[in-house]
Specification:
Blueprint: E1 3-9, H1 15-28, E2 33-37, H2 45-54, H3 65-78, H4 80-89, E3 92-96, H5 99-110, H6 117-129, E4 137-142, H7 145-158, H8 171-186, E5 193-197, H9 202-219, E6 233-235
Parallel strand pairs: 1-3, 1-4, 2-3, 2-6, 4-5
Helix pairs in contact: 1-9, 2-3, 3-5, 5-6, 5-8
Protein name: Thymidylate kinase
EC number: 2.7.4.9
InterPro entries: P-loop_NTPase, Thymidylate_kin-like_dom, Thymidylate_kinase
Length: 238
Amino acid sequence: MGAMVAVEGLDGAGKATLVAALADAARARGATVRTLAFPRYDADVHAGLAGEALHGEHGDLRGSVHAMAVLFALDRAGAADELRAARDAADLVLVDRYVASNAAYGAARRGEDADGAFVAWVRALEVGRLGVPAPDAQVLVRVPGELAAQRVRHRAAADPSRTPDGYESDAALQARCAAVYDQLVDRAWLAPWTVVGADEGRAALTRTAESWVAERLSSGSSGDIAPGSSVRSDTIET
């Protein structure tokens, strides 16, 4: 059985870049890797509805913090069996956004911190009631809010289909969300956390990923990631 690692952070923080770097570093050491990204807007009806709401559709749906959180939770619940199978089959499962995203963004929208009722509700809903598997480890990509926002704008300029949604375009929300993420790290919420910085660019992030994977592969501290396994790269969703 392998380890499942959730990569978290603000919109535009560099989560996908870190997931790719972690996967490459693990494969280079002979580990088998699976990857999955949430929300699965094109693959799950609940995520699709949430994505449409973030762009102004479905009336006042976006205004309900709990309703949006339930849609994102149901997306993960729909992938729970796939995630468990991936963890059984591979040495390392990397997830771009997971349960902590729901907790951080929802709490930030409600003006709560990590000790508030919303974070506890998300854990009870996703892990307790819906059976979403808890990760073995979590990584927060910590980046200044303005840099994250700049990356979102550049991404949208390069790809017209990536118009910033209601969360991505709300700078105040992003700032509150960053504070909640830091609190989740301090409390080791759901699983142990590692914090990496993404403000030095892709090369530095890649070096950080290589160091992180090397430490855990050699120590075995993040699940049964075994060097020397046959190399296989299976992407569930990116």
